Amino acid sequence: MRFLNTYGGGTGGVVSNFALLDQIAALNWVSENIQQFNGDPKRVTLFGRDTGAACISYLMESPIVPQDLFHRVVMVSGWSGCPWSRVSAPLSVTLRLAVAAGCPVPDDPAAAHPRTVSCLRSAPLEPLMSAARQVESPAFMPAWGPSEDGVVVAGGRRRASLGHRQVQVMIGFTPWEAWAWLGESLVTKGVNDITFERVARTWVRNTRHHHLREVLAAALQEYTDWTAVKPSPEVRRNLLFHLLGDAGMVAPLHQAADALAHHNKVFMFLCDLASRVPGQIQAPGWELGLIWGTGLSDVTRSAGAPSPPIRPPALTQLSEDVITLLTNFAKSGDPNLPRESPSPGFAAVAWPRYKPETRQYLRIGVPPTVGSQYRAHQLALWSWLVPELEAAGKSYPPDPNSWEVSTDPNLFYGVEGSDMPRVGSMMSLGGLGGSYGGPPDCVKASYEKLHLTADEIQHLTRQVL
């Protein structure tokens, strides 16, 4: 609820992202008091994964965050430029919450609504949380999370604001970023052709705005194994993981690294325990076991997670190496310094600084290696071709007979009442894939439909009454 935007955001200049303000307050406390704990206020490092990483990047971009509040950041699998990191229509979410909570709403959605705000503020916590669980969001997209308020989260070009803060940056990702977006059923059973296209079509509809048919065609062309006579469900599943992961995470992270590297020292890593079993994948969040030193337990305990290809003591040693690299970065701003790697494998590999021209990264595995231009062709689809297609389509309305404006649930994924598994909101309190937020309806709650009209508000109100 600390992200609830009751004003619609953008240009009003009314603070809405109180969760980010809480983080800023905590960092101010650290800056003022860390010396009492023998800490150095000039070497504050932030670490975040997924939505936590996105919050870090919002702090990096925010005009109200002092320049010297933090000095190094580690962002794993998240950035504010990822499509799932920001609520597109926050006022609509607020009004839907108000209706579910039994609060009055204005006849005109664009009008001032002080009674609505007052009612939500006075509502008891448990009924309010119960109402929040009824608020749907598009598949793969958040109902709750940061939104533009013109104060904490400002508008304008993200890349320009990134270059204004002098920090050392470490960015990380894994090969299977979309593992949790589809649910355990599709992970274990695989994906058929129909499901593949439904999921891809839903992703395009909920994250892009123009030339959707052309964008979908380009995506299907890139993520189809044209050499296979009949791809197995596991092969299709892995291709779908790459499609969603590249579009929703890996391409935006590389765009962030490109922008930051012009003004800051940037290091990139890929956590990849390359499996010896064909088609085997790694569970989401397993890399945290290496980072925090819990090792094998975090790698294997996620539902549906396969056995890791690397066994202790090699996994334990790998975890020690990763911890050393991260602590080096926190101390010096360079994971290579001081040169104290506990294993010969990492001691023999220098982690190169990221540059947009080469896009070099460290592959954290056994053994560690240095790579460059990770999935360059696929990432170019989302970083260059799709934006070009959308720019060319801004002047043309969608075909009224196409799926772009269709409400046929058979065309999409995650529609309430379908046999597809539920996909929770990325910013939901229950976590991705959890029960919080319920099954998103990507047709009724597409980006265009999220902006409620007066008639839709009256319809929602009648449903509650």
From TrEMBL:
Record-annotated Carboxylesterase type B domain positions: 10-382
Cross-referenced SUPFAM superfamilies: alpha/beta-Hydrolases
Coiled coil: none
Domain of life of the organism encoding this protein: Eukaryota
InterPro entries in the cross-refs: AB_hydrolase_fold (IPR029058), CarbesteraseB (IPR002018), Neuroligin/BSAL (IPR051093)
Keywords, in A-Z order: Glycoprotein
Keyword Membrane carried by entry: no
Similarity remark: Belongs to the type-B carboxylesterase/lipase family.
Protein name: Neuroligin-4, X-linked-like 1
Provenance organism: Homarus americanus (American lobster)
